[in-house]
Amino acid sequence: MSRLFSNRPGDDGLPGSERRIAVLALILGTTMAVMDNSMVNLALPSIAADLEVASADAVWVTNLFQVTCAGFLLVFAALSELVGRRRIYMGGLALFAVAALGCALSRSLESLLAFRALQGMAAAATLSIGPSLYRVIFPSRLLGSALGLSSLVVGIGYAAGPALGGSILSVASWPWLFALPALPALGAAALAWRALPREAGRRGGFDGWGALLAMATLGCFFAALDGNGAELPGLATLGWLALGVIAGTAFLARQRRAPYPLMALSMFAERRFSLALSSQGLAFVGQGLAFVALSFLYQQEMGFTPLETAWLFTPWPLTIMVAGPLAGRLADRFNPSLLSSAGLVLLMAGLASLALLEADADVFDCLWRTALCGLGFGFFQPPNNRELMGSVPAEKSANASGVMSTTRTVGQSLGVALVGACLAAGAPIQTTLWAGMATTGLSLLASLGRVSMAGEAQRARRRAATERVQ
C-alpha cells in the first residue's frame, strides 16, 4: 500500500501527502454510493409496511435511484469539464447528504421517492468522475494499482452493505439507514475541498439537447426493462424500446455536430478503448445476471433462507477485494489485456460450475464456486479499467469515466432483464447462468482482440517513463 503514496522523479499526479487525503475522499464517497442500495434493499418490506404502500410500489425506492443515477452519469461527466471535477464531486457529496436526511425524514412514499431521485443524481455526480480522478491523483506508473484500490473499495461496499444494513435494522427503524451515511458524505466533501486538484474549466457551452436525449434514451431503456419485469403487455415494452432507439439515434446524431458534445465520439476511434468498453459491458451483463439468478437458485432450487443466501453471496465481493488490488498492481507491470482475459476465463469457469450445481449440494460447494466467480471478476476489472482510462487523452478522461460508468450500469440492468426474460419463458434458472457464461465468453473475445495493442502501449509507457527520469 505504501508504494501508492511514494514519489519518484518525473512523477505526475499529486504529491504523496496530498494523495492520501484525496484518496480518502474518493474512498468515502464511493463507499457511500455503493453501500446505499444494498442496505436499502433489505428495508423495502419495512418501508412498505410503515408507509402503508404495496410492495411493488416500495420497489421504486431502489429503482428510481438506479434510473436517475444512470440518466445523469454522462451529464455530470460533461459538466465536470466545464466547472472542474473537484466542484462536481464536492457538490455530489453534499447533495447526497442533504437528500439522505430528506429520505430519513420522509413520511410518505412520494416524498421518499423525490429525495431518492436527488440521491441518484448525487451518486451520479461522484461515480461518473471517480475513475478519472484516480488518473489525475496518481502517477501514470501507478494507474493500475490505483484502479485496483478502487475495486477493493467497491468490493468492501458490496460486502459490507447487507451486513451493515441488517445490523442497523435489528436495532433501529429504516430511516436510520438513510440518516447515518449523511455524516460520512459531508466528511468526504470536506476532504475533497481540501485535497482534490483544482482545475480550470474549459471555455465553451454545454450540450443541453444532448443531455436531454441521453436521459430520454436511458429512461426509455429502463422503462422497457421494468415493463418486462412487471409483465406489462409486450406492446408497451416494445413501445418503450422503440422510443429509446429513436432517442438514441437522435443523441448520436447530435453528438456528431454539437460544438461541445456530451460524449466525444472520437474516443471510439481508439480500438483499445472500444474493445475494453465492449468487454466491460458484456462482463457486467454476466455479473448482473448471475447476482439475480443465484438468488433464485439458492432459495427456490436449493432451499436456503434469504439470510443464508446473503452469506452465500459474500465470497464474490470478498475475493474481488483480494484479487482486485493484486490485479491492478500486476497491470502496471504486465500486459493488462492478458490479465483481464485470464480473469474472464476464471469467471466463465465459475459460472459454469454454478450452473452445474446439484439441488442437494452443500454449502462448501456453493462457496467455492461463488468465490471462483469473484476471483475472475477481480482479475478482470482493474486491468480492463486501466485500458479504458489509459487509452484516451488525459483531457478526455472525465468523458471516458462517464461512458464507463454508464456502460457498467446498463450492462448490469440488461443482465437482470435477461433473467426475467428466461424465467418468463419457463426456462430453468440454470439456463440463465449458462447465458451469463455466454456473454462472458463474448467479453473474452473483445478482451483478446486488444492484447497486441495493449502490449505495444505498455512498452511505449515504459519508454516515456525512462525518458522523464533521464
TrEMBL record:
GO terms for cellular component: plasma membrane. Its main location: membrane. InterPro entries: MFS, MFS_dom, MFS_trans_sf. It comes from the Bacteria. The keyword Membrane applies. Keywords: Cell membrane, Membrane, Transmembrane, Transmembrane helix, Transport. One of its GO terms (molecular function) is transmembrane transporter activity. It is a multi-pass membrane protein. Pfam families: MFS_1. The chain crosses the membrane at residues 21-40, 60-79, 88-107, 113-130, 142-161, 173-196, 208-225, 237-254, 275-298, 310-331, 338-357, 433-453. It is found in: Cell membrane. The keyword Membrane applies. Residues 22-458 form the Major facilitator superfamily (MFS) profile domain. This is DHA2 family multidrug resistance protein-like MFS transporter.
